[in-house]
């Protein structure tokens, strides 16, 4: 992230990171609840992401294979990781995932 910011500052281009879940009303509310301290210290987040795109059989072959840039952790996981950072206001220390 620091490299992206540094490179953007040296450029005449605009840079945008499109993590759309930060703008969802429930995510914004969840962040406020967590920040209020009413839940105590957050030790664990468990997430499930599902949508019907993977049920479509006309996806390009690369999207089905991790080695070529596809797969749920690469394509979708980044949005969950960013959501966790947004909710907690800090970096994620450890991730355990199953696919």
Structure report:
With about 100 residues, the protein is mainly α. It contains three helices and no strands. Helices cover about 35% and strands about 0% of the residues. Helix 2 packs across helix 3 (about 70-90). The longest helix has 17 residues, at about 70-90. The model has no long low-confidence stretch (mean pLDDT about 80).
Quickly list its features.
37% helix; 3 helices; mainly alpha; globular; 99 residues
Distance between the termini: 26 Å
Shape descriptor reads globular
Radius of gyration from the alpha-carbon trace, in angstroms: 16 Å
Give the overall average pLDDT.
82
Task: Please specify the SSE layout and strand pairing.
Elements (H helix, E strand, L loop, with lengths): L1 H8 L15 H12 L35 H17 L11
Helix pairs in contact: 2-3
In short, what is this structure?
The protein has 99 residues and is an all-alpha fold. It has helices at 2-9, 25-36, 72-88.
């Amino acid at each position: 992230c620091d490299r992206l910011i540094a490179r953007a500052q040296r450029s005449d281009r605009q840079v945008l990171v499109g993590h759309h879940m930060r703008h969802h009303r429930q995510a914004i509310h969840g962040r406020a609840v967590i920040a209020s301290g009413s839940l105590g210290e957050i030790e664990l987040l468990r997430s499930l992401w599902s949508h019907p795109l993977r049920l479509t059989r006309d996806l390009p072959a690369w999207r089905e294979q991790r080695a070529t840039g596809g797969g749920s952790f690469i394509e979708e996981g980044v949005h969950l990781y960013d959501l966790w950072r947004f909710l907690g206001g800090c970096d994620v220390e450890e991730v355990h995932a199953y696919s």
